[in-house]
Amino acid sequence: MARLYEYQGKKLLREGGVRVPEGSVAFSPEEARAIAERIGKPVVLKIQVWLTGRAGMGGIQFADNPGQAEDKARQMLGMKVKNYVVDRILVEERLNIKSEFFAGLVMDDARKCPLLIFSSVGGTGIEEIARQNPEKISRLAVDVGDGVAEFEARNLVRKAGLSGSVMLQLADLLTKLYKVARAYDARSAEINPLVLTAEESVYAADCHLVIDDYAVFRHPELGIEVAREFDRPPTELEKIAYKVEEKDYRGTFYFFQMTERIPEGDKYIGFHGAGGGGSMMSMDAVLNKGFKLANYCDTSGNPPASKVYRAAKIILSQPGIRGYFASGSGVASQEQYHSARGMVKAFREENLRIPAVIRLGGNFEEEAIRILGAYLTDLPARVEGYGRDDSPEFCAGRLEELIAENNGALHIVQPIADPKIPKDAYAFDTLTGRLSIDHQKCAACQTKGCVGACAPKILKLEAEKPVLAIPAEDARKGKCTECLACEIFCTYHEQKAIFIHLPIPGLKEYREKILRG
Length: 517
What we know:
Dna Ligase, domain 1; Rossmann fold; 4 domains
């Protein structure tokens, strides 16, 4: 899911015909003053964060004039609230509130339809309202084909105990709220409080919209960088990771950074899971050993080796971790050798100097463990592979022992070098990268094993040199599954003639920034 800030949601409501307080977002005290001057009446200043309970944090302040607005903004901008450093505030007219209501739209999984909710009591969470005043709440299951009719909205408000002109205003707002939510593929939309002023006008005094992550591509105008339901803005590394997932739907890659700066002396590790339930168990295992997680990462749903490779490279872009722990459910249906190959390529490029324990339980786990053992034994740090019969607790214990043997050494992020590909190399594009073959080196190859290693059979021999067996366009569209098998075979059994370049936009620059300090 992708959250919008209050000011962004109110802009959409305003465009949809819903009355909202006059105001704008400010990024500086001077902007706050200018907005207050333009409004020309007392204002309210609200920090823009994806958190509830802003008033208790000092995140909602009032000002009677532009000078006060500037002073209040100066106090609020830069304040630290949980995981936030406040960088924007909404400055809007202060309403003379007579009554507060609640309006919301959520997806009802049981009924498999949107559910429109109205309460004649507002100001607190809908769960609290339901406990204390259940009779004040009315609900409408919406037929997405028909939408919300005016009479249905009127009945919804009437059931909550309201009538007259206020009922008509609220009903009109509810129909417009649904249209806005539908137009922007919102998974949920909430106005709390929805207020009636002393002048008998209805306003959306607050707004929270959450957009379906699968629909974000349809709404570039919203400027959503990461379609995840974070409780804070995404970090730079999370943005880089999301770009990997955004246009590659082969399996899942989810990356969440727990901390951007690892305190000296703390036992942080990089965590790489595969599947929700098994990952949770594996997290518990390492946490019970006293480790802390620098990140949570999940590659599941049968991702290609290229996606696992990129995940590993991103995890290893976190300086200060002491180990790498990968563990999923233990009974995954995905072919585990894909994950193994992805990690082999990443770990070898990094010349890994911190220990890694990799638990790859599931289909072909024996082959996956063999791959890890065959190609990672000469790294500076130990890498051990395990399967379904080895519990997460045992694997976490092994990581603890290996970190101790490594004297608790910290991971040092390495720069990313551009690949050195001969200008006359034979090459073709894959779905997310480019495969190059140095045919001059192929002349000394004894086995031509890269062709046999290519399970999708997209390579063939021509004049004793590996070339595409399919049209280049088909390889680019995904017939080359980026399994990395040909590169790994050639690199460790033959001539190091094959290289698959799998770029990660932004990661090179990110690491350069880390290295500059």
